[in-house]
Design goal:
Elements (H helix, E strand, L loop, with lengths): L5 H7 L14 H12 L16 H15 L1 H5 L6 H18 L2 H10 L16 E6 L10 H10 L4 E6 L7 H4 L1 H19 L1
Parallel strand pairs: 1-2
Helix pairs in contact: 2-6, 3-5
Length: 195
């Protein structure tokens, strides 16, 4: 689901695996990330090893990312108090930041520049199950018609399903019961062939 990138190369050669869609990253996003990190007093020109290592900026970046993914809605039942919910989000983000390296984040963002799977569609040998969440701000359902049209134009049998969830980009795991029957039906012909 969503924008997971590594499976694109793998599924080009796989004959029976659902395919994700990858986003196109921009140089502007990279420049914004670099400027943001450079504004952190812990940055030290990117030579922060053995020092604080930009954990404050990384935590703030992760909080924003988690919120774009829909974590506020996901945590609302467990943390109805907004302050407690914000603290839980910040704790989760800080745990992530403690394990991440700011330079690695830049390298990953740079690697994504111009990453666009559309030219690779003709190499896909698998049928595609394309699932997006109704409330996903990163990969909104409005992009589905064009994606499915491009897949179909490339000779790929594509099926689309819209996941009805308020959990946004993070809905696929928490709401697996809502889309797993669709996946089961999609894979049924393959399972029948293998048995």
């Amino acid at each position: 689901m969503g924008g997971r990138l590594p499976p694109i190369s793998w599924m080009r050669s796989c004959r029976s695996t659902p395919a994700p869609w990858a986003s196109v990253n921009t140089g502007k996003q990279l420049a914004e990330l670099q400027a943001r990190l450079a504004g952190d007093p812990e940055w030290h020109g990117g030579r922060y090893y053995g020092k604080a290592a930009c954990k404050t900026a990384l935590t703030d970046i992760r909080v924003e990312t988690l919120k774009r993914y829909g974590i506020e809605t996901a945590l609302a039942p467990r943390f109805p108090d907004p302050a407690a919910r914000e603290a839980a989000i910040r704790e989760q983000a800080a745990n992530w930041a403690a394990k991440w390296d700011a330079n690695s984040l830049i390298i990953l963002r740079r690697a994504l520049l111009g990453f666009d799977t559309r030219p690779e569609f003709a190499r896909i040998k698998a049928k595609v199950l394309y699932i997006l969440c109704r409330t996903d701000a990163l990969f909104p359902p409005k992009i589905a018609p064009d994606v499915v049209k491009a897949l179909t134009a490339a000779g790929i049998e594509a099926r689309y399903f819209e996941l009805d969830s308020d959990l946004g980009h993070s809905s696929s795991g928490a709401e697996h019961a809502k889309w797993s029957p669709v996946l089961r039906d999609f894979l049924a012909p393959l399972v029948a062939r293998l048995n």
